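Protocol step 4 of 6.
Sequence for Archaemetzincin (Thermosulfurimonas dismutans) entered exactly as in the expression construct, tag removed. Do not edit the line below.
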Amino acid sequence: MRRILVVPIGRVFGPWLERFLQELSDFWKAQVELTNPVPPPPAAFHPRLKKFFGPYLAEFLRSLSREVDFVLGVCGEELYSPRRIQVFSEINLSSRTALLSAQSMREFLFGPDPETLFTERLRKEAIRALGHLLGLPPCKNVHCVMYQPSSLMEIDVKSSHLCPECQMRLRLLQLTRGEVRVSL
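Step 5 output, structure tokens:
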């Protein structure tokens, strides 16, 4: 069974956290562990932008644990990256780490249950980030969880499931690695 370590960076807490961990565990059929919160390293902060450098934080996460398959950081601050203006997540394939900006996903919450919308956004981006770490490429299907969003609206529109094509890709990756057996 895969092990995923979830690391809160900064002020990340709330009743949604337990549900988020359970949903990740259920989706990936993995053991999900939560660490104590860690402060963001000061070297990652850009004073003019008032944001944290996502690639630096993603690399920093691996130093927190080498004994798990993947490390997923959930940051309570906004992130920036040289590749994108709006950063919801940052993925580092070589270190097998991913980082989510909980702060960015808290913007424009609406509806009768805004906390549920926030948790759904976080779950979708966590599933997508871990999917990339498992070898899945971005998907062009706007309803697939592996679709690379450029806005909160695109996160809200996509589902929290893999499309049939991505399900097949994941199955092939698992077969190639010997993680599942073919039954005849």
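Step 6, annotate. The chain has one domain: 3-136.
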